[in-house]
Every structure is written in C-alpha cells, then in structure tokens.
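User: structure tokens for this one?
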Amino acid sequence: MRFPILMLVTSTLACGKSSGSQSQAPGDGPVAEVKTQATATKPVDAAPKRSSSLELDCKRQPFASKIPIAEASGATWMPDSSLLVVGDSGTNGAFLRLSSADGSVLAKGKLPLDTGASDDLEGLSRIGSTLFGITSSGYVREWEASDEGFRLTRKSYSIAEKGDTKSVCASSQDSNCGPNYEGLCLVHAPKAAIRGERAPCVGYAVAKARGSLVCLTRKSDGRLAVRPGHTISVAAPKTLSGCHFDSSGRLWFGNNVFAANSVGFIEGHDHPSSAAITRVGALGLGFAEAIAIGTDGQVFRFSDTTGSPSLLDKYICR
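Assistant:
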C-alpha cells in the first residue's frame, strides 16, 4: 500500500501507558520497557461470551531498525524460526529472510510470479511447508521452498466465486480496491490447529477497507476460499494492516499509523459469537503494516515507507 505521507514519525513505540522513558529508534540507547493493562472488548460483529483483563509487559528489543527491501507489506514466521518478509507492488515479489534474533539478512530473492494477478503482495502466511501470498485484489498464489528459494506451485486464483465482486476486485490486476486485502494469517502451529466443523476457518484475510478479518476455508483441492458472512470487525475502516497467529492459537492483528500503530489479539476467533478482543496498545515505527508473532512472545512490526529501506521493530510481550 503506497501512501505519500509515510514518513510520519509517530510516538507509537510504547505499548499502552508509557513508563515515562523517552521513545527511541530500535537499537538507539536503552531498551524501553512498558506495561499496559490490556482489556477485552467487543468486536462489532460478535457478542463475546467472556471478558478478561491482563497486564502485559512489552519490552522493545535490540534489533535491526532497517531492512534492504522496498515497501515491506507482508511477513510470516518460518519453521526454522526465521522471518520471511515480502515487498509491495513494484517489487516483483522481492523477499528477505531475516534472523529473528537480530534482524540480519539470511537470504534474499524473488518469489516467482505468474501473470494472472498483479505483484501487489500484501499478505504472507503458511500452512505447513506451503507459503501463501495474497494481493490487495483478493488473489492468492502458493509456493514451496526450493534450492533456489521458492518455486511457484499454484498460480494466482481468486478467493471468491466468479461474480462475487463484494469479496474480490473486478480485475485481478487492480489494486487497493474492494475489500482491499492488506494481510493474511493462516494456522500453521500444531497447538493452534483448527479442525472439524467446530472451527471452520483455516485463517483470515485482512479487509482493510472494512476494518475486518474475513474467514478463509480450504477447498477440497487445497485452495483458500472466503466464507461470506463470517467476519470479525476489529478496527475502523482503512486502519487494519496485518494479522498473525501465535503458537497458542491467539489471532493477533495490527493497525497502521491512522490507528496509532496499535495491536491486539483475539481469542475464540473461530466463531464470531465467542470472539473476545484484547487490545494491547501501540507498537511500531513509521507507517506500521505487517505483523508477525514468534513462538516465545516476540512481536515484529514492519513499516511500509514507500521505498527502501523499510523499517522494523521487535518487542517481547508477556
């Protein structure tokens, strides 16, 4: 997603209430430590059956503050505990593989793309060894790791039935249209596995224009498909920017600077009627877009600055 004012420098480096220390860029000076009283609130589309409160201790970590990729827009946690991040439109599928310890670049390359959809990759996630990427228009591609990086195993396809213009854009080559998908999160951790009729969603797509997470199912041939009517509203329109599952099955989401780069998570996401949102607070630099969650409480925010380098930040929230 391109914006002409992305170099807005926000004061959203702290999570919730500030501890009083000065916010600094990652790696500059002492690491900030803040505490927040996170509270469960009601999604627009749901009536939570429970509410809770907890105190999260969020610490910003020493970490690379910039990475050599333009318009970081999608990211996911990989089986070897590295991070995979992909560029936005105009980067032709450029990706970086990063160390989750310090943000150093482990590998770089380009995800092979077919011509059936644009290169406007806005969300990245995986199920097992299969990598999925979604464009803002609502088209998905699939890849598998190879010696060269990744190989395209399924060309671009729509997540909606033909003619469903409410769920996807009219053209696969369009961008920032319709629901305007800005993120993708699929269940990939064993503890978070979703099975059977009780939990029909294998993950969610981020509909930025609506501020909602749209349920995705998997067809018999393995393709992702939108489940109409099954959504969880979590943000104001045009602010929701990414999502990611943690290892316990909580569904995290992130907002951009127009919602103070705030983050939160959802429990009971598999049915909107049981969903409960916990809003954590503001985390991230610049125009925060992608979010990725590690296996030990790590929260990574990636910022789309309309060019290279892109900004990133790491927190531990427990």
